[in-house]
Amino acid sequence: MKIHSPIAHKKTRLEIIPLIDVMFFLLASFMMVSLTMTKQQTIKVNLPVAAASQPDFKPDMINLGVRASGDVYWDAAPVSLPDLETRLKERFQKDPNTPVYISGDSATPFAEMVKALDAVRRVGFNKVAFNVKPTSPAPTSAPAPAPATPAK
Description:
Nucleotidyltransferase, domain 5
C-alpha cells in the first residue's frame, strides 16, 4: 500500500539559463585578459625608469635590445649593425607602419642607443619608442614642499 503525502511533490529542475550567463561572462573575461597579455621576445635588460611612461603593446612589433657593452639584439638573437639594417629594410618593405621598440639597459651608454636608433630611422620607420619602466606613483597625501627662496 502506498501512502501519499498531503504536500504536493515538486519535481526538481536544473535551470540552464543562469549557467549559460555565467559561461558567457567567463568567456568574455578570459578574452579581455588575453588581449592584454604579450610575450616579451627580447633580451633581459634593466630598463631605466620614466614617470611619463604608458604601455603600448602591439602583437606585430620589432623588439631591439641594446646591452651595456653595445651589443644589439633583434628579439633575443644578437645581430650586427649592418645585419640589423638589412633586416629592418626587409621588414619595412612588408609594413612601414610596424612599431619599433628599443630596450636599453640603464647602464648602456647613450651613443650605443643612438646607433640602434639611427639604423631604425635611416631605414624609414616612424613609430620608434624606447622601453622604460614606469615609476610608482607618488603618494598624494602630503603636499609637495614649497621651494626655498634664496636669502638676500
